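Case study.
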Amino acid sequence: MEDKQTYIFEAERIGYYLLGIHVQHSEKNTYADAMQKLNITLSNYEQSLWKSMLKSKSRMACIDAALALKEPNNNVRRKLFTMLAILEASPNYTTYFLSRNFSPFYIIKIGLVGIRAVFRATIGMFIINSIKRKWN
Amino acid sequence: MELSYDYIVVGSGATGAIAANSLVEAGVNVAVLDVGIEDENYKELIPNKDFISIRKDDKNQHNYFLGKQFEGIPWEATKVGSQLTPPRSFLTQLTEKFIPFESDTFKPMESLAKGGLGGGWGLGCYAFSKPELNAIGLNDSHMDVAYQAVGNLIGISGENDDGAPYSLKNLQNIQPASDLEANLKGLFSSYNKQKDSLNRKGVFLGRSALALLTKAKENRSAVQYKDMDFWSDKDKSAYRSWITIDQLKDKSNFTYHKNCLVLKFKEHALGVDVIVRRTDTNEEQVFTCKKLILAPGVLGTARIVIRSFDYKKEQLPVICNPYCYIPCLQWRMLGKEIEQKKTSLGQLVMYLDEKNDNFDVGMAALFSYRSLLLFKLIKETPLNYADARIIMHYLQSSFTIAGIHHPEKGSATKFIRMQQNTNTLTGDLLTGQYVLSEQEIHINEKREQKIKSALKTLGCQPLKTVYTPHGGSIHYAGTLPFDESGDLFTIHSNGKLAGTKNVFVADGSGFKYLPAKGLTLTLMANAYTVAKNVLKND
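After joint prediction, the assembly is written out as follows.
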């Protein structure tokens, strides 16, 4: 199990990836608490993925996108998913989750996000294949 | 402690509570034996506010939305009961320890909670048709009286529309239906415009009859539309069996014994001994009564009956409605804000009655999605979480979930079996098998296709069909089928267990057929009838 500071660092990176903002201390602490309670253990391969993901927001997005297609139950995704749930269950970030009236043109953004997700998954495939080769 | 009563009822769920209530009303001396687990972790944490206000204000909401141990963040594949939120998780607490069940093909959910599985009931009320009741093995005229008595007790709201013949039937004193939320309003108006062509295909859509108060009744208030139905029962607008148990506790002729896991019974000249394992001390205790009414749920009753008879039957039949759910996208709701005041309950029900005979009817309860939180939907997408959040944030108001139940009857490949097992606290283990034939699967798939097609007609695009393991419907029946022959492991039509003089069964163990429509109201009505028969039998 990692120490609390490591989890706080992870929470900062994941929060920035998920919402594009620096999340508050209260949610980082809740993430650290969750990690201590859930005790998610990573295999060597998953640890390599995780280290790579923590390097930058775009790497995290690409690897997550590729794993969503190839290994949706990979434990690194569980860490991301836990933070996502914590952010949703916080009054500080309700605007990111609660429904609202969107402009009809918002559908264009949805289309672009979909295209970006495919692009990210393609790049992510290369990254995870190169990491996988190291462990095979 | 008093251990001797005129009547002992086992279990406090939907059937136990109604049976006990009927006996107490008749003025006789009644005890309920129950494990009676209650929520000790979350009840006090949840504010008495609506979902949106809580989401915007409560800094501690993660404690109950996600759970103190974060048990409300699901990671494994869909399993039975995964819809249970942390505040509802007590419903299945300790079942693995005290009533273990093992099977690769059958995953039933059981409860040792006060109020039983009724604590998670979706509140759908369906008075079965005459052909359905006769197929189950129940007398329709007796049941109609019982439906009304139970309806008067629990309070039912609904509407006399196209769904009424499948739900309300002849029920009187019905409260007005709850206010229909925007997500389902569009569907309903689309149906009303096209109902002639849909009706010709055997498709009918109606407002759900729900055990939900829309007008205050005794100490229960009318629904407040807080959209916290999966999390809290604070205003008691939804009927839960524990409400009846708590009301009975004020009566001098009623006693509630908690921490009592009933193992078996033994009849003798003066009545019945009820052998109990106390779940707090692990000691055995013996209660005595003149008449015993078993209502711990179908699998619980099977365990008790198998242990009690010297003659051992290799296996008992079991029936459980096949269940799947279909998330759909409703175009007209895209990118719209969901209203603050709503309920999470299924307010519309689609019936597929192709022969127009109210028998073997398929059923789809329709729900919107919000209060179970967006992250669970995001998990189901094949996208990275950040992009999936943006897309699902936009789509969430347009999701409609259709929960499809199929009618079901027994067969040789659907059974339970008790095995000796020294590793369990009770020294035995219930196992089972549940396999549908190719023909049954084919019929169900055809029914699902027709429901999907009707949903499309209403502007609701099905995305995928999610099949839950057998047991996922949480409707179980038929282990001790109704039979007048007197053979062991059957139940007489008056509820008496064959081979006994003073033991009755008030749950669904005798039901030989399960309509797709939810069976809770029928279980309660049958328990009412059995309790009346017990009194007549004196």
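Observations recorded in class. The CA atoms of residues 272 and 289 of chain B lie 5 Å apart. The mean pLDDT of chain B is 96. We will return to this complex in the next lecture.
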